[in-house]
Amino acid sequence: MKLKNIYGGIIIVLAVLAPSTAIACTTAVVSGRVTNDGRPLLWKNRDFSQQHNEVIRLTGGTYKAIGVANAGSRTSVWMGVNEAGFCIENSLSLDLNSKTTTKGPGNGALIRRALETCATLNDFSELLQATELTGRVTCGNFGVIDAHGGAAMFEVGRTSHRMFDANDPQVAPNGYIVRSNFSITGQELPTLPGNTELATVSSGGRYLRAYSLLASQGVGNISAEFLIRNCARDMADSNGVCISGSVNSDRPVLPRQISTAETISRATTVSATVFHGVRADEDPNLTTMLTILGDPKFSIAVPCWANTPVIPEDLEGKHGGEIGEIALTLREWGISDSKHKTINGTYLSEIWQNLWRIEDEILSDARLLKNASSKTSTMAEFSHASARKAMAAMKNELLHTKTHALSIDTPKAPTFADDSNRTLDP
After folding, report:
1. What pLDDT is attached to residue 400?
2. pTM for the whole thing?
3. Which one, of 318, 342, 319, 320, lies nearest residue 331 by Cα?
4. How confident is the model at residue 399 (pLDDT cuts 50, 70, 90)?
5. Domain edges within the chain
């Protein structure tokens, strides 16, 4: 039975934040030559005004696929994987916009078309060339990996595109490419911009922070688990200084008020995904989409595979996947100031302690299944079991947090001076 039927009054309808405050996606593509298992990786934190997300299944194209979409809307997809092992995501980059008037697919529609028709980086490049001839209204950075070791970032405007190959040491000497909400092309920056060039570029701080997190792992140590835990949930200020008590901090105590105006994980983050690719000799169907619905700070990653016949029920729904809806409720209880993107840190440490233990178990078992080259049916069963396990943990956390909040003493009613003899104004 769906949670909304059990706790209908608990799920809060969240206020929609203005798009100008919510466009803050952070992404990275990582070559298999620098990961801990030789498999490429792709990561996206999604920040947007539409807070309700779900995992959907696409069956009308050349390839079956799954992806994350706005709840109840299937015309656009914002990150996904298909049965050929092709994975794609994007971050908005308005500096790639042009004055040229064009029609055609936007960012989300282009991702959906790519998932339905592309198997390789070359296929995607050909799709870009074709849509440049017929028209396109895209302006974004598109991260892509495939089942043949391909790993690249495409900066895509309305009538042109430029590829940055993570396997090319001249382009990506450390084996990874990071993007936030600007482009190298649009800002006319060197291929590897430094701090000086990014001083006045919007979202430059998040770019540098994500880049430094990956650099901290060194060659051969970057893992899907690190991207899920340490990148998707990172909270550091514009100077790269971690907020005390947060995931990458060496200080233990979270402050009561946490500003997320400059952090990677923000009060406007609505979902996150890490794609764990395959080596060239592996079955493309083993490509894993590790999906976090809702704010990653309040949610759990669930593994999904493109050939799973049915999406786990707790990840889908026209009003949002239930796991994500609980995460949004937990976050709503913890938001101190939506306008300034401030979160109350009172319950966060306990939430992390409870949820991340479950997530660790799920991610560990998912890796074991993948390394064993398990059958599609086994992976599908595990995806559903993982979603149920995550949902149970989220339910418990919701009730626990609510009980804790209700146990706080109610403030006494204020007292006022005796005014019984005062004459009221006419």
Report:
1. 87
2. 0.90
3. 342
4. very high
5. 3-404
Dihedral of CA 16/19/21/24: which sign? positive
- In the CATH scheme, what is the code of domain 3-404? 3.60.60.10
What are the C-alpha distances in Å from 226 to residues 33, 217, 230, 310, 363? 16, 9, 5, 28, 11
Phi, psi at 123, each rounded to 5° = -60, -40
| Tokens, residue 350 | 């306990």
Ramachandran category for residue 363: left, alpha or beta (phi over 0 → left; psi -120 to 50 → alpha): alpha
pLDDT at 401: 84
Q: Return the structure tokens found at 142.
A: 């598109």
d(CA 64, CA 58): 6
Task: Supply the DSSP string of 236-298, one letter for each residue.
Answer: B-TTSPBPTTSTT-SS----SEEE-SS-SS-TTEEEEEEEE---TTS-GGG-EEEEEES-GGG
Looking at the DSSP bridge assignments, the partners of residue 120 are: none
- pLDDT one-digit tens code per residue, 134-183: 889 999 999 999 999 999 999 999 999 999 999 999 999 999 999 999 99
Residue of 183, 81, 108 lying closest to 141 (CA atoms): 183
Give the count of alpha carbons within 13 A of 63, CB side only: 25
Chain-centre distance of CA 344, in angstroms? Answer: 21
Q: For residues 300-316, give the mean pLDDT.
A: 97
> Which residues fall within 8 angstroms of residue 277, CB to CB, at 6 or more apart?
32, 39, 40, 41, 42, 85, 87, 145, 146, 147, 151, 287
Q: Average of pLDDT values for 81-88?
A: 98
Question: Distance between CA 304 and CA 293 in Å, rounded?
Answer: 12
Q: Which residues of 108-122 are buried (b: 16+ CB within 10 A; e: fewer)?
A: bbbbbbbbbbbbbbe
pLDDT tens profile 244-301: 999 999 998 999 999 998 899 998 999 999 999 999 999 999 999 999 999 999 999 9
CB atoms within 10 A of CB 352: 19
- The secondary structure of residue 35, as a DSSP letter, is B
**Rounded CA separation 208/197 (Å):** 11
Strands 161-165 and 26-30: unpaired
Tens digit of each residue's pLDDT (9 = 90 or more) over 322-355: 999 999 999 888 776 666 578 888 889 999 999 9
Per-residue confidence band for 237, with pLDDT thresholds at 50, 70 and 90: confident
CA-to-CA dists, residue 245 to 58, 206, 266, angstroms = 40, 19, 16
